[in-house]
Amino acid sequence: MIRGLKGTRARVGLPAGFSGLDPPDRWPCPRSAPRPERLEAGVETLHGVGPTLARRLARIGVETVGDLLWQRPRRYEEPAPSKRVCDLFGEDDAVIEVVVRSASSRRRGRLRILTAQVADETGEIKATWFNQPWLEGKLAPGTRLRLRGRANRYGFAVSSYDLEGEGVTADFAPVYPASEDLAQKRLRDLHSQAVALVRDAGEPLSATLLAEERLPIRADALAAVHAPRVLAEAEVGRARLAFDELLVLRLALARTAAERERASAVPLGEPGELIARYRASLPFTLTTDQERSITEIDTDLERSTPMQRLLQGDVGSGKTVVALYALLRAVELGRQGALMAPTETLAEQHFLTIDELCAPLGVRVVLLTSSLRAREHSAARQLISSGDAHVVVGTHALIQKEVEFRDLSVAVVDEQHRFGVGQRTALVENRSPHVLHLTATPIPRTLALTVYGDLEVSELSLPPANRKPVVTAWVTEDRSSEAYTRLRRHLDDRRQAYVVCPLIEESETKVARAAEAEAERLRDGELRGYRVACLHGRLPPAERRGVMASFKAGEVDVLVATTVIEVGVDVSNATIMIVQEADRFGLAQLHQLRGRVGRGAEQSYCLLVSRAKEELNEGASDRLEAMVATTDGFELAERDLEIRGEGQLLGARQSGYSDLRFVRLRHDQRLLERARAVARDLDEEGLLGDDVDRLLGEAAHLGDS
């Protein structure tokens, strides 16, 4: 385990009486023989978890017992007043103690609604649960209930309950990220079972370091996070787990920085004649942000240390133009550039855009994806190895062993948070090119500088001058006909439109079938008489390219699509989008989808269709309200941090070692400073050896779980 460090440290404050916080000389030595196999066990090993529930849990990223322990509550229930039924008013949380008079259930699409007439001595009210059909059999007349929730025009919407001593409505109960088919009560029960195994979580830090930093042991921290007696206790537990994450992150970044210092890239000097022709060929003037980013890239490319720069910008801010500039800097010196995209659709769109710009310059662009026919794939590889391919655009097919570049000098990784660390590393392994990372998911600068500590950051926050903000509205399903009425007006004005199909989790094949069925329904229904095409990830590549080419050429009025259009699709004549069942999409994903319209000078619109607000969980309502409130991607990124947390905004395994599940960077600057100091001391004392390898390995393992 990591040993104690020199010096006296500032300490994290702890509430008196917190478990495990006796004076340091009486602390037990942390357990040195954890049983991680208990935490690696699937959730099916827990009581009450069958195949259906396991699938539902997997959709929110919970597959093992350890996943439950490392799932941070979104918040904790504030104390709620106990009220009589006759005193319920407004939408504040309240607790009522009632008796069941009767109960019944019904279906509304996929939604199962359970209602019970309940009463106390002052009156009667209708209590409502969503997607908890198993509860109906327990609500026999005469059953006593303690319900927590909010009164509304339909009755009393239940958020948690006690049924004859079962369930939780206590103050400070954790509220976990959930889905429409996972109730908080079920999640709390599973977390309670996981907490019973918390001693198997292990302890990576030494007792000396814990004492110096005034941190509880990991087992106590996890227990406090999931079952706090007071909110202060939960916060101290979270801070301990956040410290672990930040320490691992700083150690990993220190190691990456050391490796980078040993690497050497070919300096590319100053821009030349090819770059001058490229700039002159652009049919628009670059924004101030684009010019500043180009200057920063030029400075990087003059050095022998490989560039590692993150270019982040909102949708439509012009990242591709800047990325192509970097690629052409390599080409004009007789070297190669490569752009790696996470999906074939995005790679194909980049290829079409870049090839159109490069052809007049005499620059040869080659597309390489795994779906190419064997003969085409072989021909592309030969062009790459010979150097006849100046710029290569592709998916993860670029990192296959049989693909050999003659002289890769600049690599661009687009939507880089969608790639695993190993995939990003494989593109540059043994080559040491200059690397530009792109992301259209703006990340608050504090977070970017912390998580990408080995990267410089450039931002594109200004859209092109002729762009207008997309007007966004949230409408419920009962008003969806109005959305299509507005869409048809745009089509009659010779504009084009997108209809985004609902997000279906089961499989890509089912997503494709659902999209095709929806396109057919619209052809026969709301969009009869208009040219409707369908795009999804299961289409053969040639057909997919054909659909996009037809839409871009104006030969298709409406493109019914899955989320394959989330990034990279640029059709300036498309001015309206309808997102069906928008409550099922994440905030960043909704913003990316909205970015497909508003790419020309015309005013554009995005209509988000969802179920009634009272049927949505808290997170879904927050996301839709945020989308309506602003089109600023950086502001939405901040809001997404509040709703989902830092780690999930970044994507799985973003740092390579930590998902930052417990870090709150806007509040944890002091913790970050302490983690930096500990990592620096470890480095100075030459302790970056086996102990750190084990800590990094454990963290990476937990991130994979």
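Second entry:
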Amino acid sequence: MGRGEWISDEAARQITEISSRLRRQVGLLIGRDGKVSHVLLGDQTQLTIPRLARERTGPGRLRGLRLVHTHLAGEPLSRDDITDLALLRLDLIAAITCTAGGFPDQAFLAHIDPEGEGAAPVVVLEGAHFHEVDFDFVEVVEEVEASLARGRRAKAVAGREGALLLGSFPPKAESAGAMEELAALCTACGLDPMEQVVQHRRRPDAKTVFGSGKLVEVITTALHRGATTLVFFQDLTPAQAKAITALSDLKVLDRTQVILDIFARQAGTREAKLRVELAQLTYLKPRLVGLFPQLSRLGGGIGTRGPGETKLEVDRRRIDSRIAHLKRQLTTVAAGQALRRRKRQRAGVPILSIVGYTNAGKTTLLNGLTASALEAADRPFATLDTASRRLRFPRDREVLITDTVGFIRDLPESLLGAFKATLDELADADVLLHVVDCAAADFRDQIATVDGLLAELGLAGTPRVLVFNKVDALDPEQATRRCREWGAIGCSAIDRATLRPLMAALEPRLFPEGKGDRTLFRHS
């Protein structure tokens, strides 16, 4: 076989002759050295490619195999052929039709598009007679891999893993805010959001969320962009995660996994670390066992322990044991927290707790009010551990002000439970300071999310002050109008001068004179 040949005349003649005689598709998987690695035998309409080794499937590389197979009805490359080309990162896919006498007739070829443009980034060549095909296989493969390598080098220079963000939403549903929030979460956990792909359909595909056709386009786009990770807005079921992973060599994550990763990176105290690990194991357990439901039928007694026990069953038992251990440790931590809360209550110090959507500026506000220097970063979940400081009012009166973890829409129940102790602190608050980023496009949705979560925690009746932060990012008239509409106090947490109206509004509510009314104004 010559250097630029995609198949020799002799090999093409052999597979068309055999295919014509058996009335079944015949295929060859051929390596870069021209040697045949697999001979495939299908039926009249298709053949199945076996699971292939992954040695050459790193980012920026094709698999080093080309598939040449026969078609019996004179048809061109099928959609399944193009799917195999994209998902398996084949060097080339070719279909050769057969004459009545079993000779090669028409040839149809396709390869990955080196430019990676279009909805389906592959190049499908126009069909031609087999002996008239003018195609330099080696030149095309080298061009494609050089293009992929350039994208990979660009990502290497950036120093972060590239990720494609995927979301499936109902028709006409607003998705921009949700996807931008997902991008911020990915950035916070060390990923580089490269592109957002949104699909609007009545319900996500039960098997792969997007559907196999759209997913092929996404995976091929990831190949060209140098992305190594797919991040889904929707939580993936164990079956969906398994099916999507089987289609490509990309890392597959969902939004909950990203949030868990952020929590794991930023947890500082022993309690936070325990609760993050508990949430991670709770999330992992059904995904570990769910892939192999037959494991649940194994007994846990004599005859199932020891060397004969499957690794996954061992892992499941270890997870159960670790979860039980973490819960015992957290019970001890909770007892200590309860003791400290009782001491504060006996001291009679009012408690002011800051709540709000993640990245609304809660920690910055606490720093501004108390002249503290807690870390306040412009990223989701910069604060995970409860922080408390003394806030002094005139006449030597003080309150204890606490910062809490930020809320987020569609917060998984396991994550809410993971920080139950942090949120339990809110039950002791005399006043909740609800901080809102009033410059956010979806600030109304953020308010509704926080209100809903507080109601779930049984705190809907706790007195609350609404604070619109970041008013400096709005036109002054718009900021004033927005504050008036919601009955909120406007401020900029980075400008302490703007905090004086907030302090003036808080003092009579935290320190009512005599039997004065302590009812706070609330938003509707």
